[in-house]
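Example with several molecule types.
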Amino acid sequence: MSHQQLLSKIATNDKHGENSPYFDGWKAYDRNPFHSTKNPQGVIQMGLAENQLCFDLIEEWIRNNPKASICTPEGVHQFRDIANFQDYHGLPQFRKGVANFMSKARGGRVKYDPERILMSGGATGANELIMFCLADPGDAFMVPTPYYPAFVRDLGWRTGVQLVPVHCDSSNNFKVTREALEQAYDNAKKSNIDVKGLIITNPSNPLGTTLDEETLKSLVRFINEKNIHLVCDEIYAATVFSAPKFVSVSEVMQEMKCNKELIHIIYSLSKDMGLPGFRVGIVYSYNNDVVSCGRKMSSFGLVSSQTQHFLASLLSDEDFVNKYLETSKKRLAKRHRFFTKGLETVSITCLASNSGLFCWMNLRRLLKEQSFEGEMKLWRVIVDEVKLNVSPGSSFNCSEPGWFRVCFANMDDETVEVALKRIRAFVGRETNDNNNNGKRVEVKRWKSNNNLRLSFNSRRRIKSGYTLPNMYG
Amino acid sequence: MTRTRNPDSESESESKPSSSSSSSTGMKLIVPLQGVVQGRGGILLGSLIPCALFYFLQLYLKKRRRSNHNNHSSNPPSPSSSFPELPRTPSRSNLSSRGSITRARLSRLASTISDDDSAYYVGLNRASRDPYHKFSNPDGIIQLGLSDNTLSLDLIGDWMQKWGSGGGDDDLSINGIATYQAFDGVDELKLAMADFMRQVMGRSVHFDTSNMVLTAGATPAIEILSFCLADPGNAFLVPTPYYPGFDRDVRWRPGVDLIPVHCRSADNFNLSMTALEQAYAQARKRGVKVRGILVSNPSNPVGNMLTQDMLYNLIDFAEDKNIHLIVDEVFAGSRYGSEKFVSVAEILDSDSEYIDNRRIHIIYGLSKDLALAGFRVGVIYSFDRNVLAAARKLCRFSSISAPTQRLVTSMLSDKRFIQDYFETNRNRMRQVHDEFVDALSKLGIKCAKSSGGMFCWADMSGLIKPYSEKGELELWEKFMSIAKINITPGSACHCIEPGWFRICFTTMSLEEIPLVIERIRRVVEVCKSSS
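Resulting structure tokens for the full complex:
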């Protein structure tokens, strides 16, 4: 008998979504990783949203605070209590530290209750945990496109939850509209799909934009009316480096009437603090039942007590946290400006963004064919020939071809330079090619089943060699 | 379900439908039906009877279906006992999730978890709210319900002091551990772990790092394996009494059921293959798909070991039924007795030609053998490429924190320290165990024979009244409120015989034994005086 049959459906299906090109590019990088001296022709990893800009600050803090580590002579006496500690409530000081940090990342405009903080295995585990609490297999959650590709795995693989996309497009800078929400919700209802909630990422991955207060309020109104949950993935909260300032759902809740029991926040230290290896995921819920059942489920992804202990110290150091948030913002802003200006020299524009560790690059004029096939072809060229691992928009379920997410915070300045050089060279070549061919390319808009709007925007007719009007900053 | 009929009434039965829906009433109705057909009963009866028959058939089928759901955890130990404390299966929690329209709807799983009031967890919570402390809270609850080992933490503390901070700046550097790591564990840790397991299980066993997936504790390891090997609604066979946490790890999110295979005190709670065969056959009859057997060795809560013969029997059984065998060996290094421990890995190593090792999976971790429960270090060890591939993706949700990986790698690589730790720890465990069991027997409480684990499996059936789960839980409450000790009642471990309790002895020092015994004596006296 075949051994495949001895495995479960989950073990053998591909609902983990790892066959997406999002992950494919990583494989190309793994096979041939760039190194400034050892492998200067290698693939540069620009598909991983990691924040490596402020390690020095953390290292300096560690040197000055040996008590925080149980591995040092100063801190080891706490070892007995820490090594054994597996209480799923988590260390109280750790929870206080996280609540404090979350509050600071929102400019102190909101206070968080440490008792509502649940641990899980990274933001990955946190997103899965909240789904297990809120939805049954077969239920659905609405999610605005474009969205983080691994949501397919995190929200739906083991939970059996389906994702209902709410399509957004560049005509309004990918903002979520009330109409799009209603449409997605109604379509789901018509297909007998039970929608349990809406999940948003704010600041957005991959767009790098924050939701304005009005939009956020309208989302809260929407979920209140339908009595469905709102999960706000705010893991990029502290990466907001320029105006407009970040508005968290917690702030908006303070100003409007809504059912608190429907609101939940996902948080993590992987992006804001650049500590993905620490596996710190947080679920913060305003719903007491979710807190109590989620807490029991956190046994499957508890944060190591050693890590909790360390972070409790780090995050309660007010001065450090203030300094870190300030510095991180500045460095991200600088890097973002440097990178986007570099792209502009070859007329590549990005969606105007104020946060995140990436840009949402508009490469539509480089597509030989305005379709997702065209996008894939371009992507393959970028990975294989230009040797940059960027992520194609289709892997984020974007409704328009030609957008690419490119991460800029996981490398040093020299590597950014190399990447820009390669891009400039590539674009130069492509532009020359197109000029020589002189073909007129017509736009083909991808129509999803849910998207009933059919618009022909004359601004989008592209003549090769012409650049798009710079609408996106 | 079907009411027995009074045979006398048979011949005089009216065409009126009886409330019994057994098929044996068919005869009772055919006679009047004949009459209808022959024109004597009339159209009224001709339509009434089939409709009524149909209605009662539906009723009967519905009742049967509901009782099948109720029998999910089959072989209820005694008809008189109810299981208020045992976690209910998800199918019964529909009602609680249907709140009012304005309340936020949560998942069915959320309701199941909220309803879970197993004495195991209730006890842990109560003890943690009023914890005993020698000076600050001498009247607090002594925690003997959590299998933690504090007997040799000082050794680990010493090691940390000497070597924990490593060589200078290297270990304080964030670079290399802050960033994303291999989610199934870094290679250095896997190597160190393979070597450590070799030391623990038996020097001859070889562990291959490519068969390893590291997870944040043994808890997610068991859950991940359940997700890989079975679909929701399938089942694992598990000998009782078993670790209460299995109900959470296997049932909650994977939705896999646990079918108990009862073991009895007459056999010192050793597994009998007959019982296993029976449980398997019964499950099949009920239409339940059994996907594997889950055993712990050394056993939790009894503390006995699986013999080599029994392991071979289990392997053969799994082969014969084409199912998996999961062996939880988290207590492999926590042995104090004379019984020989045989890891299933040893058998696979030596008999690799004759055994298909792809269906055998081992769970391990550092929470028990190295007392590092807080660090969250667990292992799935499997020979099946497909299981490993799936587990590697699934451990994305439960990866070990990077700084902990580095620290633990360091510790495990210090072979001399590990050896010293095991030797010293073994001696200390043996001392405390022997003294405690001796003191208990002086109180008239006998324990099952055990050689491993961190607990005694104590027979307090003489103290309970009535001899049932109810009596057992009342005794448990007495321990909590009178003796102020948290111990785990056998019903939380699904033991078929009431009156057994798991008492962890590794959080007591030798000096503390008299205090604990004194508190237990209080309860014994209360029980004796009330009987």
